[in-house]
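Instructor's aside before we start: the two examples that follow are unrelated to each other. I chose them only because their records fit on one page, so don't look for a connection. First example below.
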Amino acid sequence: MVTPVVIAVAAPAANASATWPLAPMHILLGAIAVALLVGLAEWLHARRVARVARLAFGPSGSPRIWTRAVPIARSVAAGLLAWGLGTLASLDPVEVDAQPAKNASKHLLLCFDASPSMHIVDAGPEREKVSRAIWGGKVVQGILDRLDMETTRVTVVAFYTDALPVVRETFDKEVIRNILDGLPMYAAFQPGGTDVSKGIAEALEIARPWPKQSTLLVVVSDGDTAAAPAASRLPSAIANTLVIGVGDTNRATTMWGRPSRQDATSLRQVAARLGGLYHDGNRKHLPSSVLEGLSMIQPRPGSDLALRDAALFATGLGAFTLAFATPLLQFAGRRRWPRAAGAEQRRTTAAQPETNIRPLPASAGQPPRSSAHTLETPA
């Protein structure tokens, strides 16, 4: 038994069952109300500005063309900001520190091949291969990442010529990772042929007292066994069974004077007798469709993460638009009139002579006066 530790687990969102936009309806309606209110304020502001348009924008009486989109942009930005903040406030935290439950409701029972052939380096999709044991551990890691460790315990049984429990009912994923990191566990057994039947029998015996339909049985092996496994009666605790094969299925590698490769036929027989599914994990991990069909697997919080990401994006976009709209209007919204043209116009006007004083008309029969500015004085 490994002492339970405090780990970080993903908490399911409160709105996982909702459909897009996934936020509660009152948050969406509130965001629409905020957008309409800001739009009304923008309309009233536009009416007031229109009265002093020439004073505000110069002789043309209008700002630049792009500013016409600002009222709509600010209204939409206010609605996005309100929706984003409301949605984020309604979601649960992504990660919480949780103490594992004393009584686990789910179990992962891992039956792992510890024979020397599991250390042959011919597994993995990359050109540089890794050992079968290491690659099998990586495939199992994909299952561990989908488990809710707050309510799940993991038990590992290693088998070679015999079967030995390595760890029982642990919550700690790091312990499992260390076990599946290519440890030479065959050193704990007597040399000989691999007996997968003993490993499965030991695993099933461990699972008998567990609750009904609470256990996922995973068998990882290269199928290089001395004898075919016998049919076993599964306890009621086993809900699903996976048999994962590792090692090259086409090319054999010589080890200790005998060829060794993944025996897919033998592993399919094991899966059939256990009523489970066989997967050739030598080149790829378990498909999502297989994982999602297992009753033990915690559903991925993909929709909740998508909602959280959408809320964060909406909040950032709305806040950015509202923050920079006013400074942008201040410095780039008004048409600029050239200063040089205005100064030249003022100089031309100042240089013109006064032409608004005209000479007085001459009376009939009298010579014209010498100047229209001469004033007559009475005799």
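Example two begins here.
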Amino acid sequence: MEKPDHGKIIMEVEMLLKARVFIVSLLLVALMACGSESTEPAKSSSSTSSSETTAVSAAQPACDAELTVELANDGPYAITAPESFQGDCEMTLAIKNYAVLVHNFRILKTSLALDALPIDEATAMVDIEAAGEILYSSGDLEQEATETGTVSLDSGEYVLFCNIAGHYQLGMVKSFTVN
């Protein structure tokens, strides 16, 4: 009778455990995406009407450029947008979700660090009231959905993030500067 190769058995058990952890992680992400409903009120809609603009300061001029935001185009939890934008002005936003998962988009004015936003433990979402002031809030966007809107931002630092349950914690957050 042949002696069992304990090293080989241990490697096979480790591979099996890693596969189970991966499957459970995928199921958890899928459940969070399917079961999440945004509980925060929308601050703007998918219209470009100036009456739906969230203003930070009074009567800023319109910018010549459009701020394009891509959700999950460079990875499942990526926000692709410029690092900065010129001028204190009313900017036009063009937001598109490339992912199969539903995403949304928020612009937050806060004094907190990018990785220090408070989380509501009951919803696994950023606790907006404790984090700062939401200046723009998109709807929940399905795959290939787009939204346009306008927002006025003063010079300063902002946080861009997705507030679907668990997405901020998975890295769907980006800093943004208005010069």
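The chain has two helices and eleven strands.
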